[in-house]
Design brief:
The structure is a single chain. By secondary structure, the protein is mainly α. The protein is built from 11 helices and no strands. About 15% of the residues have low confidence.
Length: about 210
């Protein structure tokens, strides 16, 4: 649904600029349209920054304000997305706020939007690796993981190979699937990156490999 909407917007913009070119609309008007786009992006970033600050406050708060702060963070993310739907960071911000509110399935939907072909272009490889790890975490929490979580984690550690937690979770997913050799390798990678990683030694012991 989101992809269809974004595709329609993209087609509309292409047709609009073709119309302007064919009818020789003054260059000043085209410049104004570009300026409006930049202003929308700036407004989107402002909403994103406000939302990120609210989420940070919610995560560090131990009071009853947590829910209110997280809801406000999600609302700011929505405003940013409305202005710039191709910016993956705003979708990720919304996902994190929804996760904090306990809406894991909705958070997954937001991460799907962030990792869609149009939005994912705004992420660096490391950022995409982090987003894939977070989506895998949520998938494991919602339905136990399965093949989709494994695919996300394999791609995550390929893009960002220094995430011990990603390797640890990958090991857990492999272990659930009965892939002992793959699980062992993933746990060992987690320990290599983070020698004090708690779950990996226990998991290797449980598998009879340590």
């Amino acid at each position: 649904m989101l992809f269809d909407i974004l595709l329609q917007v993209a087609i509309f913009l292409v047709l609009l600029f073709m119309f302007l070119f064919v009818h020789e609309v003054p260059q000043k008007l085209i410049s104004k349209l570009r300026l409006l786009t930049r202003r929308s992006n700036l407004q989107a970033r402002r909403h994103f920054v406000i939302g990120a600050q609210l989420l940070s406050q919610a995560r560090s708060s131990s009071s009853s304000d947590v829910r209110s702060l997280a809801e406000r963070a999600a609302a700011e993310a929505d405003k940013a997305i409305a202005l710039d739907p191709k910016e993956a960071a705003s979708h990720i911000l919304k996902a994190l706020a929804l996760e904090l509110l306990g809406y894991k399935t909705s958070a997954l939907d937001s991460l799907d939007a962030a990792l869609s072909p149009l939005a994912a272009k705004s992420l660096s490889d490391e950022e995409r690796g982090d987003a894939l790890f977070k989506r895998a975490e949520l998938r494991v929490a919602v339905d136990g993981g399965g093949g989709a979580a494994v695919e996300d984690l394999v791609e995550s550690v390929r893009l960002k190979g220094d995430n011990a937690k990603a390797y640890g979770l990958l090991g857990e997913c492999y272990e659930k699937k009965g892939l002992i050799d793959e699980a062992q390798k993933a746990y060992e990678n987690a320990l290599r990156l983070q020698p004090d990683y708690v779950l990996a030694p226990d998991s290797l012991t449980r598998l009879g490999l340590k």
